[in-house]
Amino acid sequence: MDDVIDEFSLGPNSSFLYCFSFLEKNFDWLLNQINKIGNENAFLIFDNPGQIEIFTQFPAFKAIIKKLTSKELDFRLCSVNLIESNNLSDMSKYVFSIFSVLNAMINMELPQINVITFSKQLIFKKFICNFTIKIIFLAKFKF
Do 62 and 107 meet the contact criterion of CB atoms below 8 Å apart? Predict the structure, then answer.
């Protein structure tokens, strides 16, 4: 990606979009690289850092997923979303997180695992008490 940034003077998000477009157009090369691993039980991780909208709304990324999960290739994919735990302490952040991961699930059409990550803010006792109360509150109401 650094080569794309330097060669085309693009920012990080635009570089991701360019690279995904390139991979879609050169899917056979991508498939060849995956097949070089040679282990049927291998787990591949496609780390997509940054804004979730880039990956859920961009057609090239969805096209790559469709090709990998086609009946001919039969790759089994799963989406893992990391959600910062401090998003659970505020109802508006929590609702935004829920809608973001729902958007990803609908647009990418993949099974999804949502992981709550640790935040340094949980160290403070007062915050932990508020956090626990809000978690109990959110657990009572299913959306």
Answer: yes
